[in-house]
Amino acid sequence: MTTSHYEDRVVYQGDVWVRLDTLPRLLAEGWRRTLAQGGVVTVIRTPFMWAMASPVIEIETGGYLGDVGLYVPEVQLPEALHLLGLDPEDAQSEE
């Protein structure tokens, strides 16, 4: 099985977004929920498309569940790391 490669930083809809991690879709959706509750905007990148919202029906009907890139706006990166309990130095060592 091949692993998808997602860039660390991308320009999406005119803003710079930073990849928090590459992880299975279901785990990424859990992180998105945590981040949304804390006011952080997210976007998921699959090998096929960008997803600002993930309809439950897509997940339940077997939409893409492989590895995805989970991105946040660069300006919200510190908040996102805090909400997920991640150390900013650990996040940079993965890049």
Q: What does the largest sheet look like?
A: 5 strands, antiparallel
Helical segment count: 4
Q: Which sequence of strands runs across the widest sheet?
A: 1-2-5-3-4
Tell me, rounded to a whole number, the average pLDDT. Answer: 84
Rg, rounded, reads: 13 Å
Low-confidence stretches: none
Please report the total strand number as a whole number: 5
Outline of this structure?
With 95 residues, this protein is of the alpha+beta class. The chain has one domain (9-93). It contains 4 helices and 5 strands.
Describe the structure.
- This protein has 95 residues and is an alpha+beta fold.
- The protein has one domain.
- The protein has four helices and five strands; from the N terminus they run ββαββαβαα.
- Strands 1-2-5-3-4 form a five-stranded antiparallel beta sheet.
- Strand 1 and strand 2 form a beta hairpin.
